[in-house]
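Agenda item 2: iron/sulfur cluster complex prediction
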Amino acid sequence: MHFTGTVYRNPYWPTWPLLEITQGCTHNSCKFCTMYKEVPFRMSPMEWIEQDLQEIAAMDPNARTIQLLSANPLVLRYDKLAAIFEMIRRYLPKMEYIYLAGRVTDLRNKTVEELKALRELGMREISLGVESGDDWTLDRIQKGYHAEDILEQCHKLEEAGIDYWMTFLNGVAGKSHSREHAIHSAEIFSQCRPMLVGTGGLTLFPGTPLKDEAERGAFDPLNEKEMLEELRLFAEHLTCDCSFITHHTVVGSNLSGPHFLQRKEKILAALDHEIRHGDMERLAAIRRNKRTL
Ligand code: SF4
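Presented output:
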C-alpha cells in the first residue's frame, strides 16, 4: 500500500480499508494545524491507486466500505473523482459506502448534479473540518472561507443527498472572541443538516503560528474551564437534530451519541457539572500530552 507521511484515519470507522488518493492538504495554512506541514499536496498516480486496490481486493474482495485519504481528497475535480470511484467499483464490486474528508471550499468546483452522480458512484459521507461559523475567527485562523460559504456548500450536499459531518474547534478564537465563536458557529451549523457535529479542543502544538502568537502574547488561549464554558455555550445554541460527539478529554464519552436534541439538556447538565467540579489540572495534563490533532 502507498501511504505518505502520517496516516490520519477517522477513529469512528476503525475497520475500514484505507486508500490514499491524494497526499497532503491543498490549503496547509490553518494556524493551528501541524498535520501535513512536510507533505506537499498532490493527487496519487492512478497506477498507485490501482495497485492499492488490487491489494485491498486480494485481502477483502467483499469490502463494502472504504475511507479515502488524505486531508482533502474531496478537492479533486468531478471527473477525477468519478474515475477513481469507478476503479474502486471495478476491484471491489460490492462497494457501497465511500467516506472521505474535505474542506468547505472543495465543494465549490462541483455542481449539485455532479455531487449526485458521485453519490451514485458510492460517495455517501463527507467529513468537513469546518472549525467555526464566525467570520472573525475564520479569518483569524486562516481557514480560507466564511460563514456564507459554509451555508452555500453544505446546502449543495443536502440537495445531493450526501451525509456530512461538521467539526467545531473549541478554543480556537481565544478569550477575546470565545463567545462570538461559540454562538455564531452554533447558529451557522444549525442552519445546516449535518448527520453529525463533532467538537475537538484546541491544543497549541509546537511549530504552529497560533502557538508562536500565544508565546508573544498575541493570542490569548482559553484555560480548561473556559474551554468547557465555550463548549457549553456552543451546545446550548446548537439546534441541529444530529449526532453529537466530542473529543473533550474527560467528559467526551458521557456526551457523545445520536439524537443531540433529545439529549441536549443532559449534555448541558454534564458540562455544568464538569465546569463546577471537574479536575482542571488533570484536563490540562491530558492536553499537554497530546501529540497531534
Ligand atoms: S486543518 Fe485541515 S484544511 Fe487546515 S491545514 Fe490542516 S489539514 Fe489542511
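Discussion summary: Residues 18-288 form a domain with the TIM Barrel fold (CATH 3.20.20.70).
Owner for follow-up: CH.
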